[in-house]
Amino acid sequence: MRKFKLKYDEYTYDDDRLAGWVVTTVDRGIQHLDAKGFETNMCVREFMPQNIYKCNTLVSLMLVTVGIENPEFVVSLPSLKIMHLEDVWYYDDPLIMEKIISGCPVLEDFVLIRPIDFCNLDVLQFLRVRSLSLRSFRLTFEYSVSCTYFSVEIDAPRLEYLNFNDDQSDTIVVKNMTSLSMIDIDSEFNVKFGGSRLEPGDLRKRDIIRDFLTAISCVRHMIISRRTLEVLDRYSKLGPIPKFNNLYRLQAAFSRSMLQLLLVFLESCPNLENLILDFTVSTEPEQDGLTYVPQCLLSSLECVEIRELIMGEETGEKLVRYFLKNSVVLKKLILRFEDSSIANQDSDIFKELITFTKPSPSCEVIIIH
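Structure tokens predicted for F-box domain (369 residues):
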């Protein structure tokens, strides 16, 4: 047997029979195990049998809405390369995840979607992901109202891809990211809700954000959310944003009130070649921030794509003109408008953009609507 997929609900639930099936498949040398439980208002989960911790043949393991217990023996999963844990409870030992990962010497792909602690069980207050083999890691931990102090530590020298979406952990430590090639950040660093407000005197939170940015500064491709940039806007008033000298591709979501931060962040990317901006028209006042030119516009930026533009919206048009005017080596400017159809009175805007005097005469303007 190569693969066993188990999905049950409240009508087919039979704990003894389900556990027996898992035990049998593992004992028979299963390679791919996929078990998915059911959502319930009660704070209960069906716990997986502990023989899943000792399986020489298991290559991929997916557990969703189940429970796992801390084994009293050394975990041994010598063939496990892919592990997906979603809404999994493991509240009897804060270091259970570290124990499991240590028994997976060839683990390459790890997805952990942490459960919201509705039942005040203090599930996994301290998460440590330490692996010499891990290449891809996705962490999701959404904010919930809780007085519990959570922390996360990631130490993976071979990690190439990190998807970081953690709004709950107050302490974040990232180490040995020398192989990191791509990162997708959507986190508020527990600043806006239950954690610190990142005031001028909050040196601890400032240092946590600074150390996180420094640890990932070797990345080559970054996707960063508007929520994260809003936090970095506060941070930039307390300390400098580290240089991302290797970053060649950046996708960022921002609004009209974040123009100044956009330039500050671009100044930290001196070798940027490709920039994608997801522009949002907000009710917040526009920042008068387009006052200087970052280094990348003068030497390396070759392609800019601005999405979700609205025809006639002043801030978006100002941003377009800014890149046309100041990007010395720009080869392509892609403008994506939300309007499904463009009225005749807008044709003058198109003509202006296409015929705009540019420092890079070979720049191609592509308008998509």
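Residues 68 and 90 are 5 Å apart (CA to CA).
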